[in-house]
């Protein structure tokens, strides 16, 4: 992302993550909880006076790193002043970073190699605040300093943490914020960030010295790195690269592109890692090689899914490897267990699973401290997460890369058929139908993926969920991706109702979103701007309720009125879509109109022959929904070469990136007793796959 876009990014990111910061944790408790070492060896005594004597004038960052060097407290680390050096890939520049002395490299910013990120801000622009002296607990206080400058600074350090977590394979990390004569330490994991109280390091540098001393002595595991990844053998890297090159050429041919300019599916040899996954079911070890993720989260929090095209060493073929931090909650199984159940139940239209593993021993820890008196309460308490690795045998294209609008409609239909089979045969509800969760296979078929928020249904009632079996507890949840959640659910943030009709409505929103998002560039600019307004209103409208919660869905509600928004009407869509394509969207729309329209209005509409009751009856199954798509696929008039704007390189509908969180596709779930939350508003250049249902919306000086 361009450095010039950083301020907007930070503002959005700060807003999105404001419920993910927790504290202020007492320094001594922070050290006891997160920074224990094997012995009580003390830092050199000279360190105290050296840090007290750091000059106030001149280049502070240079003075600080010189003090670290002279004190001898970080003999394994090399500190670098990076205030004037952008990371080559991420275009960001923290004030200081620490690298291992053993690492080769110059005095540059490199998020892939940094061990510790240090940011420096004025004391008055502290992103956080401590409890007032009179406060007895954090119940009625906040750890956030909400001035504009403080908010921007919080978004900035959040951006840096997200980049470091994304660029490295980590379970957690530490960062440090220098605030004039004060300092705070932060521990980040996927459940949230714990911020310490502020202490004066100039008056008494004991805590600052102790933090650096302990951090220097930590091994990779204690610093949060995932050491299960190893360096592959050179011959295996060579084989993997050959398979990647063949795949790139195949995709180029499939999409009508020049094979000679096919996009490379890997980076340098140094970026390759070997994953060892011990399957939870068979306990057999599987080995895979991958370069950098082909898709990854930019957020430091949430499921933080990373997706790799990987080389299966045993099968000698390419597979899809997925890392995600799943929720450890009653009522939600790990994705591998769900795939096994779907396959054993005979569900088709889903990827073939090769193996999966829950990574034990490295669960998030932020939630452990939510009952502490210093813990300022937030609307969304932190939840426990666990890293889950899943390998699938099928690799597909995103739905946004359709070769024709007919392929788009057909793939959507296939995804809805898989969704239907999961309910009928396996009693599993997907729970997160979105544009990013349907892939197009090499043969042009739709594949329904991302079952990590799926829930088991009781044998007779598909409104409730019970993953523990008939004797176990039943828990109600809401899951989904904001842009594709039904209007009814968005307009009632207190409701935990989630029925089949809501999932079917999500299927329509997927088709509408992808059709408009990746074909609207063909409209004249003036008409495109009008459509963009209607599009944003439909997929991202939201407002705060009196109780402080966030509701949405007004745009979708208007879409389902007998006479909906002109820009999204059948006539409006026909300006850039084929006749059967626009007719399909309109026919599906009419299925839901009776659910959102007053009976007296329906009675006056000649082409509306359904009542609310009859519509509800129809939407008890997927039959009519799927039949409508199939009927339209048989019609004449579909364009043959109306390729997605994304593939044609002429995507002009949304040209600005709107934040790491939006690209992150971070899913969330809503527990019935949570009081407040909001969906992500705004769009970016990526298709949202699992944007937060409950997260606040998403952001150098």
Automatic annotation (TrEMBL):
Transmembrane segments: none annotated. Gene3D superfamilies: Transferase(Phosphotransferase) domain 1. Pfam families: Pkinase_fungal. It comes from the Eukaryota. Residues 150-514 form the Fungal-type protein kinase domain. The lineage of its organism: Eukaryota, Fungi, Dikarya, Basidiomycota, Agaricomycotina. PANTHER family: FUNK1 11, FUNK1 6. InterPro entries: Kinase-like_dom_sf, Pkinase_fungal. Residues 678-701 are annotated as: Disordered. This is Fungal-type protein kinase domain-containing protein.
